[in-house]
Amino acid sequence: MADLTSPRESLVVPRASHAEASPEWCVRADQLVAAQRSVTIALPINILLTLVCAAVAWHAGNTRVALFWLLASASVNAARALLQWSTRGHRSAATSPVEPAAVERQLRDLWRITLASGCVWAMLPLLCGLYTAPEALFFLAVGCGITAGAVSHGGAYARVPIAFITPPIVSSAVALIAVGGFDRSMLAATMAIYLAALVLTARRAEAAFRHASALGHCMAVLNTSLETAHASAQSTAEEMRYHADHDHLTGLLNRAGFLRAAAGSTRDTRAPTCLMLLDLDGFKAINDVFGHTIGDEVLVEVAQRLRRELPDDVLMGRWGGDEFAVLLAATPDDISTVDLADRLIAAVAAPYPTFGTVARVGMSVGVHVSHASDMPEMLACADLALYAAKSAGRNRCTVFGDDLRDALDLRRDIERDLPAALGTAEVSVWFQPIFGDGGTRIFGLEALVRWQHPTLGWIMPADLMATAAKAGFARPLMDLILDRVCAMITALSVRGLDHITVAMNVSPREMSQLPVDQMVLAALAERNLPPAALEIEITEETALDTADCARKLQALSQAGIRIAIDDFGIGYSSLSLLRTLKVDSLKIDRCFVSGLTDSAGDQVLVKAVLNLGQSLRIDVTAEGVESIEDLRMLRTFGCQMMQGYHLARPMPMTECLAFIADAEAQSLPPGTDGFQRAAG
């Protein structure tokens, strides 16, 4: 008999390798496996029928023919068994897939040994005297049965059953024709038809097997592809989830990931928790001087230093830019929390391999301890504490307390009432004169926002600007200030006072969040006002953030608007920035001017800034002139531009215009002690 299909474990080509094998080779391998397995079933049947046929021939007296038949059949069956054992042993011992050439070789060997077996069965007519003996019917029945069985069970590879059935059927037909007679001739013709039918059946069975095998392999490949695609999709989803929650630079949790992790952490415990917000001091100077690549390296190093100082169970993330957030279990007192914050500050302040002691990186920390799990509330409190730490001089830690609670409540009151105040003109713009010629003539005005709250009283401009930026009202507030500034420029022009410029402050947050250049230029163009009549005052912090504001400041400067650096001396300005940003004016911070006569150190600094301005041909204005003594000393230093309460206080627009008219009428000569009219 020919072959059946074999178990999958005997496959020559493992399923795992189907994606790498050609479809034709996979089908041929399946044909080989099916043919080889049928040998396991057919061989015992073949041996049994051989013995039966030999016994019948022996009983009929054909002893020699029976012995020869038995010896020939035994030899071929032994060879088939040996081939089957050798190929099965090879397959089970193989450590790698068999090559296509080996598959074809095994198929050829199987065809040859099957043909030999068919040739042995072709001797069947000799056992019954060419079908003339009484036993002829028995041998004809055995021959038909074994050939039909070979085709029905061996259709996987048609050459094998055809090789087996052709010799015995042909030999039987020849024997019948040789004996002669009409009935035997018709039987021989019938056997020829029978052979043709079996061959056709075998080929159709092989075609069906190949089609099913190819379809199975295609399904296997498709299934493998689907599994691979599913695994890839899962991997991509996991990667996307990771990147959605983690910062690509430092590997820490990003803002969204930190908030999600913090929400779960605070929800699962009733113990007090401590939230720290950390912000680097002087990092923008690192970016400006050394470039953003070095800045990124510093951020990575900072993250590693912070991680080393913190316990393993502490939640840490990069809040954004140069800010970090830390959430940990709070201690009964604030001492250990402050100690931890101080250790973090010290770790960050240590020299960096990239630039050593050439530059310095500090860090301010805002801390809030709470028993509640309200993360937005904790963030608001820690953020206010961080702001307080920066305002107190930076590079320090501030713990949220009762004093900051009052400030937070004030901020929330401002946020609540600011929209209505902007709509009802409660928020106004006042102007403070800036004097030249040693404090004797008005050269400019500074626009200062003012808000007298119905219950809270006068709101500090810094609180108003910061709250407006955080609450999303920065643009409406700036539009209001721009409108009032343009109105003042127009009023001065009508009065023939075109030499007086009007300055307005732009905070770092406004510069980064708003299209300041477009807003300012559009407002001037709409009212047909000269750009030279306006001056934009920025802080040193804004000036250092060159990546965000340089383009906007350059557009303003190219349009003819003057650029001034406010509060000069308290930040991290570099001399190159004064040229890079084409600064027109410096304003010495009031902390160095107020009480100047009593501080030798402030006197040295003021002189240095005045000399710097003279060397660079940049105007220098001294802010905070609060006494006649300060005024006189500034004059001895050669300071021409001054501003302060001793000269004039901020005042509403109408009062300011009247004040300017009086000042122009007086025309005080140089050397006098300046105007002392107060307003507001």
Automatic annotation (TrEMBL):
The chain crosses the membrane at residues 41-60, 66-83, 113-132, 138-155, 162-179. InterPro entries: Biofilm_reg_signaling (IPR052155), EAL_dom (IPR001633), EAL_sf (IPR035919), GGDEF_dom (IPR000160), Nucleotide_cyclase (IPR029787), Rev_trsase/Diguanyl_cyclase (IPR043128). Residues 271-402 form the GGDEF domain. Signal peptide: none annotated. Residues 411-664 form the EAL domain. SMART domains: EAL (SM00052), GGDEF (SM00267). It comes from the Bacteria. Keywords: Membrane, Transmembrane, Transmembrane helix. This is EAL domain-containing protein. It comes from Sphingomonas glacialis. The lineage of its organism: Bacteria, Pseudomonadati, Pseudomonadota, Alphaproteobacteria, Sphingomonadales.
